[in-house]
Amino acid sequence: MKLAISGASGKTGYRIAEEAFASGYEVKVLVRQDSIVPESLIKSEKNILSLWNQSKLDEALMGCDVLVIATGARPSIDLTGPAKVDAFGVRNQVASCQRVGIKRVILVSSLCAGRWFHPLNLFGLILIWKRIGEQALQNSALDWTVIRPGGLTEQEDNLEKEHIRYSGPDRQQDAYIPRRLVAKSCIEAINTPSSIRKIIEITSGEEHPEIKMSEAIKGFA
Question: Which of 28-32, 43-47, 71-75, 134-138 has the highest mean pLDDT?
Fold first, then answer.
Protein backbone atom coordinates (compact mmCIF):
# COMPACT_ATOMS: atom_id res chain seq x y z
CA MET A 1 0.00 0.00 0.00
CA LYS A 2 1.32 3.42 -0.96
CA LEU A 3 0.68 6.43 1.27
CA ALA A 4 0.83 10.05 0.18
CA ILE A 5 1.45 12.46 3.05
CA SER A 6 0.83 16.13 2.36
CA GLY A 7 2.58 18.59 4.63
CA ALA A 8 5.25 15.98 5.27
CA SER A 9 7.93 18.54 6.11
CA GLY A 10 5.90 19.87 9.04
CA LYS A 11 6.47 18.89 12.65
CA THR A 12 3.57 16.44 12.63
CA GLY A 13 3.78 15.49 8.97
CA TYR A 14 7.34 14.22 9.00
CA ARG A 15 6.56 12.07 12.03
CA ILE A 16 3.61 10.57 10.16
CA ALA A 17 5.95 9.74 7.30
CA GLU A 18 8.45 8.14 9.70
CA GLU A 19 5.72 6.02 11.31
CA ALA A 20 4.46 4.98 7.88
CA PHE A 21 7.94 3.86 6.88
CA ALA A 22 8.30 1.99 10.18
CA SER A 23 5.00 0.20 9.48
CA GLY A 24 6.23 -0.98 6.10
CA TYR A 25 4.30 1.33 3.81
CA GLU A 26 5.60 2.78 0.60
CA VAL A 27 5.55 6.54 1.15
CA LYS A 28 5.39 9.60 -1.08
CA VAL A 29 5.95 12.88 0.75
CA LEU A 30 4.28 16.01 -0.62
CA VAL A 31 5.98 19.22 0.47
CA ARG A 32 5.88 22.91 -0.35
CA GLN A 33 8.42 24.37 -2.77
CA ASP A 34 10.45 26.07 -0.03
CA SER A 35 10.22 23.30 2.56
CA ILE A 36 13.24 21.63 4.14
CA VAL A 37 12.80 17.88 4.30
CA PRO A 38 14.05 16.25 7.53
CA GLU A 39 17.07 13.99 7.14
CA SER A 40 14.99 10.94 7.96
CA LEU A 41 12.99 11.49 4.76
CA ILE A 42 15.83 12.37 2.40
CA LYS A 43 15.57 9.05 0.53
CA SER A 44 11.78 9.07 0.26
CA GLU A 45 9.86 9.71 -2.94
CA LYS A 46 9.04 13.41 -3.05
CA ASN A 47 6.71 15.64 -4.94
CA ILE A 48 6.25 19.39 -4.70
CA LEU A 49 2.80 20.07 -3.29
CA SER A 50 0.69 22.55 -5.21
CA LEU A 51 -2.70 23.03 -3.61
CA TRP A 52 -3.90 25.36 -6.37
CA ASN A 53 -2.76 23.61 -9.55
CA GLN A 54 -5.25 20.85 -10.29
CA SER A 55 -3.10 18.91 -12.75
CA LYS A 56 0.00 19.02 -10.54
CA LEU A 57 -1.98 17.96 -7.49
CA ASP A 58 -3.48 15.06 -9.42
CA GLU A 59 -0.04 14.06 -10.67
CA ALA A 60 1.33 14.08 -7.11
CA LEU A 61 -1.42 11.76 -5.86
CA MET A 62 -1.52 9.42 -8.83
CA GLY A 63 -0.74 5.83 -7.93
CA CYS A 64 -1.31 6.25 -4.19
CA ASP A 65 -3.82 4.28 -2.14
CA VAL A 66 -4.17 6.55 0.89
CA LEU A 67 -3.74 10.27 1.52
CA VAL A 68 -2.88 11.62 4.96
CA ILE A 69 -3.52 15.37 5.00
CA ALA A 70 -1.17 17.04 7.46
CA THR A 71 -1.08 20.44 5.80
CA GLY A 72 -1.72 23.44 8.02
CA ALA A 73 -1.44 27.20 7.82
CA ARG A 74 1.89 28.55 9.01
CA PRO A 75 1.93 31.38 11.56
CA SER A 76 1.96 34.57 9.53
CA ILE A 77 0.78 38.14 9.40
CA ASP A 78 -1.34 36.95 6.48
CA LEU A 79 -4.57 36.09 8.28
CA THR A 80 -6.01 34.55 5.12
CA GLY A 81 -3.63 31.58 5.50
CA PRO A 82 -6.03 29.35 7.46
CA ALA A 83 -8.77 29.89 4.88
CA LYS A 84 -6.41 29.10 2.02
CA VAL A 85 -4.74 26.03 3.54
CA ASP A 86 -7.07 24.56 6.18
CA ALA A 87 -10.31 25.01 4.25
CA PHE A 88 -9.80 25.44 0.51
CA GLY A 89 -6.51 23.56 0.47
CA VAL A 90 -8.18 20.55 2.08
CA ARG A 91 -11.13 20.87 -0.29
CA ASN A 92 -8.78 20.78 -3.27
CA GLN A 93 -6.99 17.70 -1.97
CA VAL A 94 -10.32 15.93 -1.47
CA ALA A 95 -11.37 16.79 -5.01
CA SER A 96 -8.07 15.48 -6.35
CA CYS A 97 -8.52 12.19 -4.49
CA GLN A 98 -11.89 11.78 -6.15
CA ARG A 99 -10.39 12.43 -9.59
CA VAL A 100 -7.43 10.05 -9.27
CA GLY A 101 -9.26 7.28 -7.41
CA ILE A 102 -7.86 7.50 -3.88
CA LYS A 103 -10.60 6.24 -1.58
CA ARG A 104 -9.04 6.42 1.90
CA VAL A 105 -8.18 9.79 3.45
CA ILE A 106 -6.99 10.71 6.95
CA LEU A 107 -7.20 14.40 7.89
CA VAL A 108 -5.26 15.87 10.81
CA SER A 109 -7.43 18.68 12.12
CA SER A 110 -7.61 20.15 15.63
CA LEU A 111 -9.45 19.84 18.90
CA CYS A 112 -12.22 22.46 19.10
CA ALA A 113 -12.54 22.71 15.30
CA GLY A 114 -15.61 24.78 14.52
CA ARG A 115 -15.71 26.70 17.78
CA TRP A 116 -16.05 30.46 17.44
CA PHE A 117 -14.94 31.49 20.91
CA HIS A 118 -11.40 30.23 21.30
CA PRO A 119 -8.01 31.99 21.56
CA LEU A 120 -6.71 30.16 18.48
CA ASN A 121 -9.23 32.03 16.37
CA LEU A 122 -7.17 35.18 16.85
CA PHE A 123 -5.00 33.62 14.14
CA GLY A 124 -7.35 34.12 11.20
CA LEU A 125 -10.32 32.19 12.61
CA ILE A 126 -8.28 29.02 12.19
CA LEU A 127 -10.70 26.71 14.01
CA ILE A 128 -13.58 27.83 11.82
CA TRP A 129 -11.63 27.19 8.64
CA LYS A 130 -10.45 23.81 9.93
CA ARG A 131 -14.07 22.80 10.43
CA ILE A 132 -14.91 23.88 6.88
CA GLY A 133 -12.04 21.69 5.68
CA GLU A 134 -13.42 18.80 7.71
CA GLN A 135 -16.85 19.29 6.16
CA ALA A 136 -15.41 19.19 2.64
CA LEU A 137 -14.08 15.73 3.47
CA GLN A 138 -17.21 14.58 5.32
CA ASN A 139 -19.43 15.57 2.39
CA SER A 140 -17.38 13.48 -0.04
CA ALA A 141 -17.95 9.84 -0.88
CA LEU A 142 -14.47 8.96 0.38
CA ASP A 143 -13.60 6.65 3.28
CA TRP A 144 -12.50 9.42 5.61
CA THR A 145 -11.27 9.73 9.16
CA VAL A 146 -10.72 13.06 10.90
CA ILE A 147 -8.13 13.05 13.69
CA ARG A 148 -8.52 16.00 16.06
CA PRO A 149 -5.45 16.23 18.32
CA GLY A 150 -5.22 18.43 21.38
CA GLY A 151 -2.39 20.87 22.01
CA LEU A 152 0.71 19.51 20.29
CA THR A 153 3.98 18.92 22.12
CA GLU A 154 7.43 17.92 20.90
CA GLN A 155 7.87 15.21 23.54
CA GLU A 156 9.71 12.13 22.27
CA ASP A 157 10.84 10.52 25.54
CA ASN A 158 8.94 8.04 27.71
CA LEU A 159 6.05 7.85 25.28
CA GLU A 160 5.34 4.31 26.46
CA LYS A 161 3.92 5.92 29.61
CA GLU A 162 1.62 8.20 27.63
CA HIS A 163 -1.72 6.61 26.76
CA ILE A 164 -4.19 8.13 24.35
CA ARG A 165 -7.64 9.26 25.36
CA TYR A 166 -9.96 8.79 22.39
CA SER A 167 -13.37 10.41 22.09
CA GLY A 168 -15.96 11.35 19.53
CA PRO A 169 -16.37 14.95 18.33
CA ASP A 170 -16.69 17.89 20.71
CA ARG A 171 -15.95 15.92 23.88
CA GLN A 172 -12.51 17.31 24.75
CA GLN A 173 -11.20 20.83 25.08
CA ASP A 174 -7.79 21.65 26.49
CA ALA A 175 -5.50 18.65 26.98
CA TYR A 176 -2.27 17.93 25.10
CA ILE A 177 -0.66 15.16 23.09
CA PRO A 178 2.84 14.58 21.65
CA ARG A 179 3.05 14.91 17.88
CA ARG A 180 4.57 11.42 17.73
CA LEU A 181 1.39 9.92 19.15
CA VAL A 182 -0.68 11.84 16.63
CA ALA A 183 1.45 10.30 13.89
CA LYS A 184 0.97 6.82 15.33
CA SER A 185 -2.79 7.44 15.53
CA CYS A 186 -2.94 8.33 11.85
CA ILE A 187 -1.30 5.03 10.93
CA GLU A 188 -3.53 3.14 13.36
CA ALA A 189 -6.61 4.72 11.75
CA ILE A 190 -5.57 3.38 8.35
CA ASN A 191 -5.62 -0.11 9.87
CA THR A 192 -8.87 0.39 11.79
CA PRO A 193 -11.94 -0.07 9.55
CA SER A 194 -14.27 1.21 12.28
CA SER A 195 -12.53 4.59 12.13
CA ILE A 196 -14.00 5.22 8.67
CA ARG A 197 -16.42 8.17 8.65
CA LYS A 198 -15.52 9.06 12.22
CA ILE A 199 -14.20 12.22 13.86
CA ILE A 200 -11.78 11.09 16.55
CA GLU A 201 -10.43 13.44 19.20
CA ILE A 202 -7.16 12.45 20.81
CA THR A 203 -5.23 13.70 23.83
CA SER A 204 -2.89 11.78 26.10
CA GLY A 205 -1.62 11.34 29.64
CA GLU A 206 -0.21 8.77 32.01
CA GLU A 207 -3.54 8.65 33.85
CA HIS A 208 -5.41 7.13 30.92
CA PRO A 209 -5.71 3.36 30.45
CA GLU A 210 -4.02 1.84 27.44
CA ILE A 211 -6.57 1.04 24.75
CA LYS A 212 -6.62 0.39 21.02
CA MET A 213 -8.42 2.81 18.73
CA SER A 214 -10.83 0.07 17.60
CA GLU A 215 -11.86 -0.65 21.18
CA ALA A 216 -12.22 3.03 22.04
CA ILE A 217 -14.50 3.63 19.05
CA LYS A 218 -16.94 1.01 20.37
CA GLY A 219 -17.57 3.30 23.34
CA PHE A 220 -18.31 6.43 21.31
CA ALA A 221 -21.79 7.77 21.95
Answer: 134-138
Ranges of each domain in the chain? 2-218
Give which of 177, 169, 129 is closest to 145, Cα–Cα. Answer: 169
CATH number of 2-218: 3.40.50.720
The per-residue b/e assignment along 1-27, b for 16 or more CB within 10 angstroms, e otherwise, is eebbbbbbbbebbbbbbbbbbeeebeb
> How many residues appear in the chain?
221
In this predicted structure, the answer to whether residue 214 has a pLDDT above a threshold of 80 is: yes
The number of C-alpha atoms within 13 Å of 84 and in the hemisphere containing its C-beta is 11
Instruction: Give the distance, in angstroms, between the CA of residue 143 and the centroid of all CA atoms in the same chain.
Output: 14
Alpha helices in 26-123 (DSSP H): 54-61, 81-82, 90-100
175 in Cβ contact with 150 (< 8 Å)? yes
- Give the tens place of pLDDT for each residue, 49-84: 899 999 999 999 999 999 999 999 987 888 899 999
What digits encode the pLDDT tens for the residues 87-132? 999 999 999 999 999 999 999 999 999 999 999 988 899 999 999 9
| Cα 61 to Cα 5: distance, rounded to the nearest angstrom | 9
